[in-house]
Amino acid sequence: MNIMLPSDTIFQIFLILQFSLGVLGNSALLLLYIHTFIFRPQYKKLIDSVCIHLTIVNILLIVFLLTKEIMLSFGVTNFLDNIGCKAVLFSFRVSRGLSICSTCVLSTFQVITITPSTSKWAWLKPKLSTWIFSSLLCSWLINILIYGYMLPMVVAKSNNTIVGYGYTDGYCVNKHPGSQNLGSFLSLILIHDLFYVTIMMWASLYMVIFLYRHRKGAQHLRTPNLSSQTSPERKATHSILSLVSCFVLIYWLNNSVTLYVFYAKEKIPKLESVNSLLTTCYPTICPFLLMKNNKVILQFISSFSVLRMTCFQSSLHG
Asked: For position 229, what pLDDT does the model report?
């Protein structure tokens, strides 16, 4: 007997799964970095501070966006009032902006790290720690200023709210739908995002060229052992390149849907919720891409495999 679940129930399951997977994955990665900083400082790297920052803002993004979507999917009404709308939307947008900035800093950091000492960018290497701190601090200030301007524009949705073009979700809406200021504000957000995405795409192109040249150079080596070895820099470059590629793909899909929803005169609530799932895809996938080449995790997996083989051999002899 086949039992078909209603589409709303399937969507609720997706929301809860993505929320759980995203929060647990990022929390596990954050605990891993904290463990490394405290108990294994020999594995600590400068790039870890950026990863910690990215992991924290990813958790905030998922929690602030998907909590209200889960409540909405279960039919909870009046979950957010005016102050709640302003606080949740501000926190989500700032977290999203910081996620973009952190990913950009990660990709740029890796480009500077793999840059040859003869390059014109080599002078940045000794200043990486200062540059990272300054970049992240500026990112916080810029995002707080941009989205602080948004606070007076957002109110809780009421039953008699009429929506023109502009922002809306299940609980919140623009105070003055169709206002000219909304288009200007959206343009400001897009310029901010595109600035960082352009840098990411440039960094990705540089890393692809680096990997191609590295592979071509390895093919000319006569010793198979040397040519088959993968350097830590190359592993890290592969990992960050995957991260940036994932981000850029999801970013363009997400922005396309966001623009459609923003300018549509008749709002489609389900499409807005699907867009929220799309928005949280990157922060959900991100920790697993970062874990892929983490030394502590690889050592743990190796130790676990050895322990499993030892137990298996003991059971055979027993």
From this structure: 45
Distances (CA, A) of 175 to 75, 165, 181, 240, 273: 23, 12, 11, 40, 21
Single out the residue of 33, 64, 38, 63 nearest to residue 51, CA to CA: 33
**Residues 12/73, Cβ–Cβ less than 8 Å:** yes
pLDDT tier at 90, thresholds 50, 70, 90: very high
Give the pair of three-digit tokens for residue 16.
Answer: 């809860």
Task: Dig out the tokens for 309 from the structure.
Answer: 């083989």
Phi, psi for residue 116 in degrees, rounded to 5: -60, 155
Q: Please give the single-letter amino acid code of residue 188.
A: L
In sequence order, which ranges of the chain are alpha helices (DSSP H)?
A: 7-39, 47-73, 82-114, 128-148, 180-219, 224-228, 232-263, 269-279, 281-291, 295-317
Q: What is the DSSP letter of 75?
A: T
Of 32, 36, 210, residue with least CA distance to 110: 210
CA angle 113, 115, 117 (to 5 degrees): 105
pTM of the model: 0.85
If 0-12 CB within 10 Å is exposed, 13-18 middle and 19+ buried, where does residue 91 land? middle
Please give the radius of gyration of the chain, using alpha carbons only, rounded to the nearest integer.
23
Mean pLDDT (the chain, rounded)? 81
Spacing of C-alpha 133 from chain mean position: 19
**Are 204 and 245 spatial neighbours (Cβ–Cβ below 8 Å)?**
yes
Measuring CA to CA, how many Å separate 100 from each of 1, 43, 154, 214, 317?
Answer: 47, 26, 23, 28, 55
Tell me if 51 sits within 8 A of 28, measured CB to CB. Answer: no
In the chain, the amino acid numbered 51 is C
Give the number of residues written for the chain. Answer: 318
| Closest CA relative to residue 190, chosen from 268, 118, 252, 131 | 252
Contact 91, 65 (CB under 8 A): no
Which residues face 156 on adjacent strands? 172
